[in-house]
From TrEMBL:
SMART domains: HTH_ARAC. This is AraC family transcriptional regulator. The lineage of its organism: Bacteria, Pseudomonadati, Bacteroidota, Chitinophagia, Chitinophagales. Keywords: DNA-binding, Transcription, Transcription regulation. GO terms for molecular function: DNA-binding transcription factor activity; sequence-specific DNA binding.
């Protein structure tokens, strides 16, 4: 097949360009699909993205994890994640694309979205099946957002932002009931900071001790905390992030395996290939082929 570059789409224009001044768009999902028949798959977004399905079937994937499409399902994506869908029955629902700045303009906390479980960047937490009795409230909120965008009234964006926050809080309560939400304490804050540091430094820092030093704790403490809360040792969280980025880069057919290895700061192509196969069961070449030949 011909080489292609994994496209990264921006808001509104849905083109292979960086984010523009347009920070928000919303639409009915069927109209969005009709207007953007030329979307390439797989692709990445440079914005936050959510879809609520009211009809349809098929499948979609977030960062190479597959999910069935079902009525009543809502999914969320953060910037940079790789997305793909394959519909068997024409879907209907709602779509919202927005930048982080769009929300932070209203709230003082620049990291406001971090508190919602579905904006964790972990695909397994980003797809939520909404109980039937709760769906009318979501539809009501999404219809309100569509009306505000179409009307263009004074303070339209502030009204949309407040309704979106209501939507996020409502879905977050359904995804993580109050009795299951851990009280914010030193350990939970420490783990959150560890995960943020991984996102910032996974290329050049691949050892638990590196992150423990930045967090002013011992490697044993960080490892025990990670295993207690996530079920995975600290080193595995670091490794999972490296593997995820490797997969994202491998989908870009214009990057050689050696270039991917260099980007992720491995010593050489051979070591990277052994690392990737050890933890995925596939060579980088076979993984790339499995995705791009779909």
């Amino acid at each position: 097949m011909a080489k292609q570059i994994l496209p990264t789409y921006s808001i509104c224009s849905i083109a292979d360009t960086p984010v523009t001044k347009n920070d928000f768009m919303t639409d009915r999902f069927s109209h969005y699909l009709e207007a953007h028949k030329d979307l390439h798959f797989p692709h990445k977004h440079s914005f936050y993205h959510l879809v609520f399905f009211t009809e349809g079937s098929g499948s979609h994937s977030i960062d190479f994890i597959n999910f069935p499409v079902e009525p009543g399902q809502i999914y969320f994506m953060t910037p940079g994640q790789v997305h793909e869908w394959d519909f068997r029955k024409n879907p209907e629902g709602y779509i919202i694309n927005f930048s982080e700045n769009y929300i932070s303009t209203l709230v003082m906390n620049a990291r406001y979205l971090d508190q919602f479980v579905f904006f964790s960047g972990n695909a397994a937490e980003q797809v939520i099946n909404i109980p039937k009795q709760e769906r009318p409230q979501l539809v009501q909120l999404l219809e309100s957002i569509l009306r505000e965008e179409a009307a263009g009234a004074d303070l339209k964006d502030d009204m949309i932002r407040t309704v979106m926050i209501q939507l996020f809080i409502h879905v977050n309560r359904l995804a993580a009931p109050a009795e299951k939400i851990p009280v914010a304490n030193y350990n939970s804050v420490l783990l959150k900071n560890f995960q943020k540091l991984i996102d910032l430094h996974y290329r050049e820092k691949k050892l638990t001790r590196d992150y423990a030093a930045m967090l002013f704790v011992t490697p044993n403490h960080l490892n025990a905390l990670s295993k207690h809360v996530t079920g995975k040792p600290a080193g595995e969280l670091i490794r999972d992030r490296v593997i995820l980025e490797a997969k994202r880069l491998l989908v870009n057919a214009d990057m050689s395996i050696a270039e991917v290895a260099t980007d992720l700061e491995f010593e050489d192509n051979s070591y990277f290939s052994k690392f990737f196969k050890k933890y995925t069961g596939q060579t980088p070449e076979s993984f790339r082929k499995s995705i791009l030949d779909k």
